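Review box. Two proteins, two foldings.
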Amino acid sequence: MLQTLSPRLVFAGLAGLAVVSMAFAMIYLESFLNLAACPLCMTQRVFVVAWGAIALLAVIHNPRSLGNRVYGALCGLAAITGGAVAARHVWLQYLPPEDVPACGPSLQYMLETLPLGETFSIMMMGDGNCAETQWTFLGLSIPEQTLLLFVVTTLICLWQTFRSYPQDS
């Protein structure tokens, strides 16, 4: 049954998942609940947008089997990297309070005053703001939900990369 799904439809689904995820974060979490995104949250969003953009390019390009594998691998790479950031975020949330790093400056301040490389380094480390659990759904914090989203996306991308295509026969 899964083999009958066209690669274009799978990539459209991945792009749609990224759009829905970003809309949920920006409209519901930020605008409705007034939750501020921490540096690790912002980094995870970059990787959601990256996988969504790659998937959208695949939909537009509609390549043959090798192209589908390349797009699947690139999309998967973005999801794996985002998943690693989300895993770090979850790890920070489970640290004992005495081990949580101190809160740092805002992302806007860092972008205005620090070199880009240093800002990226600080963002990837996370800080005390990242260790705070602001909202849960079904017992999962936002980073845990995002990690689950990245895992599902990675699995879909791996399947897309290694599945057999009619041109392969």
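Next protein.
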Amino acid sequence: MGKSPKYYAVWRGRRPGVFDSWEACRKQVDGFPGAQYLGFETREAAEQALQRPYHEVLAERQPQPLQPHTKPTQGYCVDAAYDTAHRRLEYRCVQLPTRREIFRVGPLPDGSNNIGEFLAIVETLMLLKERGDAAPVYSDSRIALLWVTLKRCRTRIPPRPEYTALFERIRRAEHWLQNNAFVNPLLKWETALWGENPADFGRK
């Protein structure tokens, strides 16, 4: 994900200003309706940004629109792998263009590729919001992208005691979507045009 922010500018929160840790920033924005904040590498950058409108600073962080069929060169890709033989699920997020792995989860008992992609997207959004990173997030699962839009994982797998860890993550993801806004574009990774998803586990 690149360098982690060291300073946070809060435009709207319990107490606007510049804070030198995520924990200090979080106290100002968690649960505050319409909170506006971003992370920066230096205090000077945070202070300068705070003198400008939030949406103007945020817009500068948005990626430029891609030309048709242009392969993305920035952002984050997620993917999931479901082992049908052993009924185990894994998912992960990588950063473009380096393909550096940001996180990997699993194996979890049972699940599906779409569940894994849904969780990977949401957990990436959670992490990027903490860091004030507005980069796009790519997934090759149209279903998972739809579930995120609906703010609900619409799996037909029934919750069972042996799936506790999986469904705890699903509930946490749904709760976060229902109580948080995010600015990251969610985009379909076009495998036919761009090749394999960079987060693919390579087990096909």
